[in-house]
Amino acid sequence: MEQIEKNLIQNIDTVAMSLHSLEGIEEFATNYAQKTGLRVTVIDLDGVVIADSDKDKELMDNYLNREEIVQLQTSDIGKVVRYLDSTKRKYLNVVKQIQIGDQSVYFRLGDYVEEIEDNFMQLSLKIISVFFISLLIAIYLARMVNKRLKNETDNILEILHNLLDKKQFEVKSYSTIEEFNKIAKLLNEVGGKLKKREKLKNKKNAKLKLANRQKDEIISALSHEFKNPIAIITGYCETLMKNNIDETMKNKFLQKIENSARKMSDIIDKLRLSIKLEDGKQSLKFEAINIKKMSQTISSELIQNYKNREIEVVGDEKVLYVDRVLFSIVLTNLIENALKYSKDKVKIAIYDDHLEVIDKGIGLDEKEIEKITKKFYRVSGNSWNNSLGLGLNIVENIIKLHNFSLQIKSQKGVGSTFLVIFHQ
After folding, report:
1. Alpha-carbon distance 215 to 208, whole Å?
2. Strand, coil or helix: what is 375?
3. Dihedral class, residue 381 (left if φ above 0, else alpha if ψ from -120 to 50, else beta)
4. Reported pTM
5. Which tens digit of pLDDT belongs to each residue from 18-53?
6. Fewer CB within 10 Å: N-end or C-end of the chain?
7. CB neighbour list of residue 223: distance below 8 Å, 6 or more residues apart
8. How far is CA 4 from CA 110, 169, 201, 298, in A?
9. Are both 304 and 269 inside the same structural domain?
C-alpha cells in the first residue's frame, strides 16, 4: 500500500512537469487512465471537477469537502481508501495540488487495492495455519525429545548406582553419549564457520545499505539543486519561443538562462571534486602562497555579491606551501558561508600557526557541529536552504589533503569561528 502511494505521488509529480495548460485535460485524463489503469480526477480549487476518466464530470458533486481534499489544508498530500458503488471496487486515492500553466488544481489519482487486501488476508490466514501446525509439531517433538532424554538420564543414573553399589566396576562405552559429543563438536565447528559467514554477510549488507543511502542522498540533493535552475531555464526558454520581446529583455532572459546553466555546472564540478577528494585521486601542485593576500583577493571578489557588508582581513603575512586552486576553494567556502549566515562584519584573522574565519551569525549547536562537514548535510532552519551540502565536506577533505586540520567553534545565536590549523 505504501509503495502504491509512492507510485501515485511520483505519477502526479511527473504529470505536473509534463502538462503546461489545462487545454484538452479531459482527453488527457481518459488517455492517461487507459495507459496506466489508474483513475484520474482533476478538480479546481473551488472543488468543481474539471475532468474525470471514469465518470461524467457534470454528474459529479463538489469535491471541496472530500476527506482527501480537506487533508490538503494541513498537508502536501491527501489520501483516502474508498469503496465505489459504481465500479464495485476499493481504491486508494492520492491527491496533490499542482500547477498546470498559470492555474493551480487538485490532481487526484486512484489505484485498485482490494485485491492486495484480499491477498494479504489470505497470506495472514496461511501464516496463522502454518504457525499452529508448527506449534503442534514442536510440542510433539519436544515430548519425544524429553522422553528420549529421560531414558538416557535413567541409563546414566543406573550406571552411577551400579558404581556406587559396586555391582559393576567396569563401565562399558556409552555410545549414545559419544554420538552427542561428536555432534556437539561438529556443531561447534559448523557454528564457527557460520559465525564467520554471518559477519561477512553483515559487512556486505552494511556496505550495500551505505551505498544505497549515499545513492538516495545524491539523487535527493541533486534533484533539489537542479529543480530551481531547470525551472528557470525552461520558463525563460518558453517565454523566448512563444513571445516577441525586445532585444534588451531577450538579453536579460539569456543572462538568466546562462546563470542557471552555470549554477548547474558548478554543482556538478563540486560533486566531481568531492568524489575525487574522497577517492584520493586529486593531485596537488604546491607553491608558496601569501595567505593574507589570497584572503584579501577572495574577499574583494565575494563582497561584490553582498552589498553593504564588510570583510576585515587582519594578521600576519603568512606564506604557506599549498595548492593555489584547492586552498582558494577552502577560503572561498569559509568566507562565503560566514557572509551567508550572518549580517554583521566578517573577520579573517591570520596567525603564524592558523587562520580564523569569524562571523556573528546564527551559529550552530553541538549536534550540528558534529555533522556540518558530512557530505550532503545542510543546517536545518536556515534561510539559505539552497545548498548541496558539499561545501564544508570539500573544505575538510582539502584541508586533510594538505595535512592541516579544521576546527569549528560555534554557539547558537552568537556566531561561529572556523579555524584552519597549519602543521608545517
Report:
1. 10
2. coil
3. left
4. 0.42
5. 888 888 999 999 999 999 888 999 999 999 999 998
6. C
7. none
8. 10, 76, 31, 51
9. no
